[in-house]
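Notes on consecutive records. When two proteins share a document, each keeps its own sequence and its own token line. Never mix them. Below: protein one.
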Amino acid sequence: MELNETTINVLKNFASIQPNIVIEEGSVIKTMAEARNVLAYATLEQEFPKSFGIYDLSEFLGVMNLVDTPVLKFKDQWVEISNSSGTTKVKYFYSDPQMLTTPSKELVM
């Protein structure tokens, strides 16, 4: 899976709200500030194949910048980030979603 520019920009924006995130399977991602005063939802053009937690979203985006044209392969315990030719690979381990701040209910407006 390659993340498009829109998805990367949404993740950068979410990193400014809360450093960690739980990404659920599908195309909707959401985050909430630690103080629970800011809530953000985004529906992406892409779909994530599985649910996983990232403890430091800025660090994750930085690791993706280490390779040109990052390709993500989602495994049970980690995501493998590699370049398009597959010569460079990085394992980024998931975080336990129970340790991360995430919205538990949907906001109805």
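Protein two starts on the next line and is unrelated to protein one.
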Amino acid sequence: MIEPIEYKKSFFESIDFYHQKGWTDGLPVIPPTKEMIKNFLESGGVRAGQIIFEVPERKRSVGAEKIAINAILAGCLPVYMPVIISALEAMADPEYNIHSSASSTGGAAPFILINGPIRSEISLNSGTNFYGPGTRANASIGRAIRLILINCLGAKPGLMDRSTQGNPGKYSLTFGENEELSPWEPLSIELGFKKEESTVTLLATEGPHNIQNHYGQSKGILDTACNTMSSLGSMSEGQSFFVFSPEHAKIISEKYKTKKAIKEYIFENAIIPENILIESGKINNNGWADEKGNVRHALTPEDIFIVVAGGEAGGHSSWVPSWSRRRNGITVTKKILSSESRLSQTS
């Protein structure tokens, strides 16, 4: 198990020590000191020795100090701790299915979506290049979660993590919803949270699938989205997210005023004939199809989530599907507690 250390003779020697121990994701890390750990615990409103979550399948429990250590290794700021702790609590929910998703050959990554005021408080990117490099919060929060999976739950590549090809999202797939440019209510409001509350939503997913349409109108963009969803490569019965860019969202909303209308349209039109799935070898038995012989990715329209993120210009959106069938893990949302709120719960 990973332990805190003081710096060795040099900063780079300390980094090499963590690489030698196998406590990294392959990238350089920030070696933690006792003072740094103390600051992170205080920012999270947790105590050393406090158990944050448990994974019965792995017979592992993860304490606050281990979380702080890995957050520091990942390059986080102390102010990120409330987000990281709430994200881990979501992962520990049995509905997320952390054990199977972290060990599957499918290469699942934690899709981490953040809503509410905390986005601006930690300077989280929800605009241009939000999936890409350049923002400390987006990069290091997701990286901290990955290091905790590796160092605390044993999800090391080639051992417990048996991904056939992996997924770039395993480094980090963390972003905020661009609520300000969305024509629809944010996901947190849709799920019943208050505007002043911040939330973190997790789903074990594949990487994003690009939806490119520069000239289409409302229906044309949704038809492009449906075609992306119904491709052979990712056909399953799992939940999924459509992350529409502001440009696409604005055009779609001219005809489809509500998320409910969009979900129902996609559910009815993102279909593929069952016989094609069987002939391709994608499935090896009948029983998936409806009365017309078609198979849908989602079991219901409510298995399709609609959010908005990205820069203001550009005809690119994305579809992010679950790593597996619905029964193998679904979306979990948790309220992000401030350090004061968390302390009051445990005092």
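For the record: The two ends are 28 Å apart (CA to CA).
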